[in-house]
Sequence to fold (623 residues):
Amino acid sequence: MNEQFAEVLKNKMDASSFAKLDALGNDKLCAFVVDAVGLCRPDKVKVCDDSPADIAFCRQLAIDNREERSLEVKGHTAHFDGYFDQGRDKEVTKYLLPKGMDLGERLNSMDRDEGLKEIRGFFAGAMKGRTMLVRFFCLGPTNSAFSISCAQITDSAYVAHSEDMLYRPGYEQFKRLGGKGGFFRFLHATGKVDERMASAEPDKKRIYIDITEDMVMSVNTQYAGNTVGLKKLALRLAIRRADREGWLAEHMFLMGSRGPGGRVTYFVGAFPSACGKTSTAMLPGETILGDDIAYLRLMDGQMRAVNVEAGIFGIIADVSAKGDPLIWDVLHTPGEVIFGNVLIKDGKPYWLGMGEEIPSEGENFIGRWAKGAKGPDGKEVPPAHKNARYTIRLRDLANLDPNFEDPQGVPVGGVIYGGRDSDTSVPVTESFDWVHGVVTMGAALESETTSATLGAEGVRTFDLMSNLQFLAIPIGKYIQNHLDFGAAVKAPPKIFNTNYFLKSEEGKYLNGMLDKSVWVKWAELRTHGDVQAIEGPCGRIPKYEDLKKLFQQVLKKDYTEAQYREQFQIRVPELLAKIARIEKIYRGEADTPKVVLDTLAAQRERLEALRKAKGDYVPPSDL
Fold:
């Protein structure tokens, strides 16, 4: 280690920590730690490796620091964030761009020099009186082409404990690389805290992404979505690396669907929030590899994927014994679980929509709570936050796929895009080919808002590939990368669009909550050519006899021809209106690939021809 680095660090860490850092032989890493020590001025520094002892140290420190508290079930803890720190903060999450770089108006950005000056000012002395933790993790399986090494510096044991549950340990990989290869860096400081050890200065919250240095900095926040850097913050960095290296970093689940004869077909899927993403990844009888972020690479002409995470940081609202039995079981079994911003009463956690009676008083994210209590903004506070969370390890799920840790990933058999759509798309459609699927399903992805969340039901939000808010490259370049990636695959996976939220004219849902199992099973059969399909103007749709059989096999229920006709009729006016909305968006993007507008125009022509021949609403029997 550089002598100047060694002199600084020996004054802040014990011999064990110094030896662990020195053994990595990485000057860039040491410079990162030295700069953080000089800036944040912690009392001491603890460097952790992959050992069970160091992992247990961080977990216990979270309890000792009162960032977490033990619950009735052994191994379960609860964490509370500040009242104004209950979710990802988009307004203060910004890209730091050097002069001359422009990523487009959609991305929240600022001048790099200005941003660094501001946030380093907030970091100055922010760890006085605290222990700085230096942690190492890996995105994706270790010792793999998918692996990205990550170094996290934080003064929050809760953040470190969360990352131990959510990611693979990465110290040994750093040691194996011996200073070779780039790595992502994350610096976090909790900032001033209140009596409950929650970040107390939300007006000084900042989450800045320095894309020129593969580095994320967050301060005056504790909420995991802002501070667990390897999650959505690292996704932004990974998208840029993937752009340079020719692979894809996606906001996608990864799951295995069981087919005939014990066959398992792997699907990746992109769904905006509240559109059924996690519930699809956790379908009964199927296997899960991940519910949130996947990396896709080309290997020997085949598309393969991994889940970059090793755990789930999931929204707990509406998780119930009936609807989510596998997750429910983990949440009630001894072992490591972190509950975030739920209601605690007599050592037990309670949350919205759990299917059990919730106490009328207890402790939650405002402190002592009773029904009718109001927060500092004067608003009535529910027993648990609607964005309350659970953190679990995937290995604790009974349905974890046996190939989860395969360094080669798993072969992708199909891609699924799904949004919330009450009146336009049929429940499941297969694209004509890779380009058609990328353009008309992935790049045209929309989701309707609900009155429960934003007060304006039916407003459609554009969210291409469910990745719009995490893009760190221009939209047109991102779409072109998808098109090029598929063109390089010997046999590109089939692409499907699903819609679980179609409604009747009376406003009633046409699909049951578990019907998605049937749509995925049909997609699994189609990837192998086991069933035929009907050619429609927007893709291929199922035949009635195949769905009738699947409903009996999968759900043990009847599926009538009347249901089929209503669900799978082609709604021409609504589909044309969608094309008009999407075309307007892409005509406003300077770098939109020509094939995007050509593919949309071709779909519009097919729809107009169908309307001329058959009318506005066309049953599948007329196709």
Remarks:
- The chain has three domains: 3-67+91-245, 249-311+403-622, 313-393.
- Residues 451-455 have pLDDT under 50 and may be disordered.
- The longest strand covers residues 131-139.
